[in-house]
Design goal:
Elements lengths: L1 H12 L6 E5 L4 H6 L27 E5 L4 E7 L10 E6 L2
Antiparallel strand pairs: 1-2, 3-4
Length: 95
């Protein structure tokens, strides 16, 4: 099911020059970028601290993936346990 969902997302965003894909992916960024239908988009994953579980983060399962046409200015995991995952925020510079 996940592979089908990611293939659909790839279909939706594949034609755009500038891409931002974010969410609770329930997997590691390397898996998304190397072993999924997203692998040939060239998306980049900023290095993040652990986001899950929010009360004692041990794994990074939440991601903001960017196309190389966008410049990452700032990335942070926010210490606001509003769910079982900590939120992630980025600042990007548009071309």
């Amino acid at each position: 099911a996940r592979s089908m969902q990611l293939a659909y997302i790839r279909e939706l965003i594949g034609g755009y020059k500038h891409q931002v894909l974010m969410g609770d992916m329930n997997t590691h960024a390397s898996d998304l970028l190397q072993n999924s239908p997203l692998r040939d988009l060239g998306l980049l994953a900023p290095q993040l601290e652990a986001t899950f579980p929010s009360w004692r983060p041990q794994r990074c399962l939440d991601h903001i993936l960017l196309s190389p046409t966008l410049t990452l200015e700032k990335v942070e995991v926010l210490a606001q346990p509003i769910s079982d995952h900590l939120p992630v925020a980025v600042e990007i510079r548009l071309p």
